[in-house]
Amino acid sequence: MKSFLKHNSQSLGKNNRWIGGKYDWKNERWVWAETGKPISLKTFARNVPDKRFLQWTCIVVAPNRMNKWALKSCLQPNQFICQKKPKRPIRPKTFDIRICRRNVTQLTDSQKIKCLKLVGGYAGKMFPNVPAPIIQTPKPTMKNLKEYMCPSNMLIIKNRCYHFSHDKLNWNDAYWACRDNKTYLATIQNRFQDKMLKEFLNSGLAGKHERWLGGLYDWKQKRWLWANSGIPLKYQGFPFKNYTGSQFEWRSITIDPNIGNMWSSRLRTELKHYICQKRAKTIAKLGDYNTALY
Fold this sequence. Notes:
Elements: H1 2-7, H2 9-12, E1 17-24, E2 29-32, E3 57-62, E4 68-73, E5 79-80, H3 109-118, E6 145-149, E7 155-157, E8 160-164, H4 171-180, E9 184-185, H5 191-202, E10 211-218, E11 223-226, E12 251-256, E13 262-267, E14 273-279, E15 281-286
């Protein structure tokens, strides 16, 4: 890749370009985002910073450093390099799979083995009186693996997409700004989701801003609920337990960096940054390897 970028620098330009590496801060290692496998080859242009500062860091190829790797915030806009495997020509099969539809007694041992492999089974067991397509010991099913994708203006955290606004709006306008983009003001359903969001906000990559969430106070029922669904809060991230009463009328929930990104409440007329949210789209799922012959 270095050689290609060097010889084509005039047409490609000298811009940093994303490649698929990122820092897995939980396991303290560099991995390829597509597969999750550790990166064995590391050609960074200089010494890597302390691990404490690598959270939300991804890898670019840097032309100004002889196309070696460099580290940049994953939120920074850069050009990028896509990759796919080349198509290989399909070789003609020498084995006619139609013979697998015959009764097993009509097949040779070699044909039985090939038929078993075609239907995804092991070739170890033979059954004399059943049709060939179902002579198989099923392969074990792999554990399901899911990959998620978000729109380009949103950041993925676990299996949710988040947009951290640059502008300030009152709560009502923020609610509709999210809805206009087919998202909704963020909801936090449990302690784990709250922790994941806090860890990102504590990194400072989205700035240190108090931000609207999607919760508001129902003064008639004297309880907090999520505006998007109308469902009362089951989990609350307020610093104190008794967050109810007439003083919370016309108030909605914020997440406040001044108290460690715990929840707070503000009058809905105040101007704040806000967080939009939607569920990430599942783009891949690996499961049972067994296949049907027909």
